[in-house]
From TrEMBL:
The gene is narJ. Keywords: Nitrate assimilation. Pfam families: Nitrate_red_del. It comes from Pseudarthrobacter quantipunctorum. InterPro entries: DMSO/NO3_reduct_chaperone, NO3_reductase_chaperone_NarJ, TorD-like_sf. The keyword Protein biosynthesis does not apply. This is Nitrate reductase molybdenum cofactor assembly chaperone.
Length: 206
């Protein structure tokens, strides 16, 4: 278990979560924890600066616009691999199974179990090995999210880069390389939707 990776995952979980007053109060803690490791804080610097400098209601509106309503920034890992297909129910079940096997009650707080901030927090605080296995399994989802954030010039992309850098192997050069690596193809059993394209994610809540 790497203390540095734990800190990166916990800070990533917080920085990718909906901003509220509690999160703002954690910014100094994140800065101090990340500063223990050379180069770590730089990946989070711009997001942390924005959290401190942006009025809370404005930050919340920005988060909803970019993460709840943007198809390119979906934070649910299985959206990228399974879309809204029948298979996705089994995938979500695998996340729940991992949580149950850790013998710790994981409060999903109304979110689906593949919500990236939840997976990162679980990895950092509950079961590092099991959580890391989920991150490795869904590495293509992390990479596709990263490219979406990079394409729209959002500073959270550097956080995804830092998270991906903790996992085995080099990051693919572009989105097409990610899709080739993962063997993505349109699922054949779509439920009320056109065949899934990972670049056209379903809008959360739609």
């Amino acid at each position: 278990m790497s203390r540095r990776d734990q800190v990166l995952y916990m800070a990533g979980a917080w920085c990718l979560s909906y901003p509220d007053q509690d999160l703002l109060g954690k910014v100094p803690l994140m800065r101090a924890a990340l500063a223990e490791f050379p180069g770590a804080v730089e990946s989070f610097q711009e997001v942390l600066d924005a959290l401190e400098a942006t009025p809370l209601m404005e930050a919340q509106a920005h988060y909803v616009r970019e993460f709840d309503l943007s198809r390119r920034h979906a934070l649910h890992l299985s959206y990228w691999t399974d879309g809204d297909t029948r298979r996705r129910g089994e995938v979500l079940g695998s996340f729940k199974k991992a949580y149950r096997q850790s013998d710790v009650l994981v409060d999903t707080q109304g979110e689906l179990p593949d919500y990236l901030p939840m997976v990162l927090e679980y990895t950092a605080l509950v079961d590092f090995a099991a959580g890391r296995e989920l991150l490795i399994r869904y590495r293509p989802s992390l990479e596709m999210l990263k490219f979406g954030l990079l394409g729209d010039k959002l500073p959270h992309a550097r956080i995804l880069e830092a998270i991906c850098a903790t996992l085995p192997g080099k990051s693919p050069a572009d989105e097409q390389a990610v899709m080739r690596m993962a063997g993505y193809g349109p699922p054949t059993e779509a439920v009320g939707l056109d065949p899934y394209d990972p670049r056209l994610l379903p809008v959360k809540g739609a």
